[in-house]
Structure formats: structure tokens, C-alpha cells
Design a protein that fits this description.
This protein starts with 24 loop residues before the first strand and ends with a strand. It is built from no helices and nine strands. The chain has one domain: Immunoglobulins (Immunoglobulin-like).
Length: 141
């Protein structure tokens, strides 16, 4: 009698995981694909673009910055209001620490209040030197 052949299952090759991504930019700054000496990506931003608020409503602006450039940011550069409708309830300016490429700094939190008139409003911040310009865009109803 001939022995029945045995079936041997070979395992499927395991899937190679894709590399995980860094936090996704949420607007403002420069897209993460730029390789400039000085550049930023705005992450974990609040409020999101086109968030709806009531008139004269208090809210916090919050975001962090990632150095996506090829050069280190020097300690002492100021981050503050630059242009658009100034919704800050006080003149807050942050002094940035030294930030190496790939590092994140923040969160930066600003106290704000929406305007009294309905409409779409944009406010831009700036890191000293102008290479990073985070913004918020809100709708007031």
C-alpha cells in the first residue's frame, strides 16, 4: 500500500508594516513636503478651519509647531499676532526655544474672543523671521 502524501501548509509571507506618519498638519505654515532651510508645519490646531462660534464668544486658540526645515530654529524667536482680525483678548507673545529639525514645540495657547458682527474671520500669527505663519479661520453667526 502506498502512503498518502501529507499536505504541508507554508505560511503566507507577513505584511511589512508601513512607516507611521508624523502628526498631520491642520493648516497654516508650509506643507510637510518642503525641504527649505527654515519651515514649519502647524499641528494639533484648534479651532479647526471654519469652526462656527457665536458673536462675542470667548475661545482658546491652540497649536503646536513642527520644524520641517533642514536648519535648527534659534532660541528666542518670537511668535505672536501678525495680521487679519485680531481676536486676542491680550497681547500674548511666545519666545520659542531652540527647535531641531523634526522636533515639535508647543502647545501655544492664546485667549481670544470672536467679533461682534457675523462673518468669516481669519487671523494670522508669525514666527519672527517670517518662515512660519500659522492662522485660524472661524465663522461667526
Amino acid at each position: 500500500k502506498t502512503a498518502a502524501p501529507t499536505v504541508t501548509l507554508s505560511p503566507f509571507p507577513s505584511l511589512t508594516p508601513f512607516p507611521t506618519s508624523t502628526p498631520a498638519p491642520l493648516g497654516g505654515g508650509i506643507p510637510a513636503t518642503v525641504s527649505a532651510p527654515y519651515a514649519c508645519s502647524v499641528i494639533n490646531k484648534w479651532p479647526f478651519d471654519n469652526t462656527v462660534f457665536k458673536r462675542n464668544e470667548d475661545f482658546d486658540i491652540k497649536f503646536s509647531l513642527m520644524n520641517i526645515g533642514s536648519h535648527e530654529w534659534n532660541q528666542g524667536a518670537d511668535l505672536g499676532y501678525d495680521s487679519g482680525v485680531n481676536m486676542l483678548t491680550r497681547a500674548t507673545v511666545y519666545e520659542l526655544p531652540k527647535v531641531k529639525p523634526g522636533q515639535i514645540t508647543g502647545p501655544f495657547i492664546f485667549d481670544a474672543r470672536t467679533p461682534r458682527k457675523p462673518g468669516a474671520y481669519t487671523m494670522t500669527f508669525k514666527v519672527q523671521g517670517g518662515f512660519c505663519r500659522p492662522y485660524i479661520k472661524v465663522i461667526v453667526k
